[in-house]
TrEMBL record:
The keyword Transmembrane helix applies. It is a multi-pass membrane protein. The chain crosses the membrane at residues 29-50, 57-78, 84-103. This is Multidrug efflux SMR transporter. Pfam families: Multi_Drug_Res (PF00893). It comes from Catenulispora subtropica. The lineage of its organism: Bacteria, Bacillati, Actinomycetota, Actinomycetes, Catenulisporales. Belongs to the drug/metabolite transporter (DMT) superfamily. Small multidrug resistance (SMR) (TC 2.A.7.1) family. Keywords: Cell membrane, Membrane, Transmembrane, Transmembrane helix, Transport. InterPro entries: EmrE-like (IPR037185), Small_drug/metabolite_transptr (IPR000390), Small_multidrug_res (IPR045324). It is found in: Cell membrane. It comes from the Bacteria. Signal peptide: none annotated.
Amino acid sequence: MPWLYLMIAAVFEVAFALGTNATNGFTRLWPSVLTLLAAAGGIYTLSLALRTLDVGVGYTIWTGIGSIGTVTFSALIYKERITLPKLISFAAIIAGALLLRLASSA
C-alpha cells in the first residue's frame, strides 16, 4: 500500500508543478486553488507512504517521478522540447528509482 500512496503522491506532484505555471504567479483564482489542493494532496499521500517507507527512499522516488512527469507533460501541454540530455537524465532518474526500490526491499 505505501507504494500506491507514493504513486498517487507523485501524480499530485506533477499536477502541482504544472498548475503552478498556470497560476500566472498565483494571480488566477481557479488554477491557484487547484494548485494548492494538488500540493496538499501530494504532501498528505506522501506522508501516508512514509509511514512505512524510509524517508530517503520515498522522498527521492516521489521527486524523481514528479520530475519526469512534469517534464513529460510540460512537453505535451506547454510544447517544451525534450532534448537528448533530458532523455539521458530521465534514464538516470528511472535507474536510480529502481535501484532505491530494490534496496528498500532488501
